[in-house]
């Protein structure tokens, strides 16, 4: 998945990297890319004004869950400089400038441009392009001191008003002899450096050549935690940030793509919901899973999935804890044992209902789900985790750029 706008025409980008291309990213778009199953994300262009910009947190969440995120040229270079120590991969000269503190302001890469229907034509010149072009004019046409004065003048202008024409009309250049002004004008028109374009080309070429380079290991804040405690980076994050509703818990979007029926989704929902309550009861009663329990859990899941290892082990540990709880309760595994555990959980937590008793109370608890009782638990996320563990989600979130 590539977020691209004015930095490089899309038809040229597609010659470099065969991928899905979307417009400049806004806040929430990284979560949406994850929700659509993309695990290689290239951020080049992003919105700066008129709508919220891509949030560092959504990029960090994506990397924590195993996605490979590249950045270059514009918003991508800025975010890569901020997050390269956490695993985001930066490309190009602009990224290096930000990373090394040579430039620090967001408006260095900002510009105005036409809508997508008109090809994202640039209506102003980004300061990074002015910097690169003027640097190339030293020492043949201008001195380093003159370069710095010209850059400072461009930086003082509001970013929509920056252009090489404005640079030539500035007081500094206006005082030069005519031959010097003409020489600089010719240089700017024939040897202009489009640094944002060059960096976009470098990033797409590198991704096409290298493929999915793994994120920096050990950066996941959710590694080793039970799935119910993990931060949800898909629909829940979008909803919390105000950029979209939660996926209908009755039939998550992924189910449509997998051809799952409503009944299949409901069955899986009840399974993962019941597992949560059994595990919560087990922890409250000091029950732990043995290596044999973990071996039994592993036997129920394929050896190869699209899960990162830490996530897979955490999910298997949850399943092993269910096995341990059922064994501790009755010495065997059965649905009836699981129901009795959930009834005990309800009693210990003061959960009751005027209309439901016994099995009907268990059904109501499981169908209501942990979230109903105040737990940080979302079926949208648990649904995807379960499908991944079972190897059924390989087609949804394989390494696609």
Topology:
Blueprint: E1 2-3, H1 10-16, E2 21-22, H2 29-35, E3 40-43, H3 56-64, E4 68-72, H4 75-83, E5 89-91, H5 92-99, H6 127-136, H7 144-156, H8 164-169, H9 171-174, H10 178-190, H11 195-210, H12 235-240, H13 253-258, H14 262-284, H15 291-299, H16 309-330, H17 335-348, H18 358-368, H19 379-389
Parallel strand pairs: 1-2, 1-3, 3-4, 4-5
Helix pairs in contact: 4-5, 6-7, 14-16, 14-17, 14-19, 15-16, 17-18
Q: What do you see in this structure?
A:
By secondary structure, the protein is mainly alpha-helical. The chain folds into 3 domains: 2-119 and 196-210; 127-192; 254-388, no CATH class. 51% of the residues lie in helices and 4% in strands. It contains 19 helices and 5 strands. The protein has helices at residues 10-16, 29-35, 56-64, 75-83, 92-99, 127-136, 144-156, 164-169, 171-174, 178-190, 195-210, 235-240, 253-258, 262-284, 291-299, 309-330, 335-348, 358-368, 379-389, and strands at residues 2-3, 21-22, 40-43, 68-72, 89-91. Helix 3 (56-64) links the parallel strand 3 (40-43) and strand 4 (68-72). Residues 212-251 and 395-400 have low confidence and may be disordered.
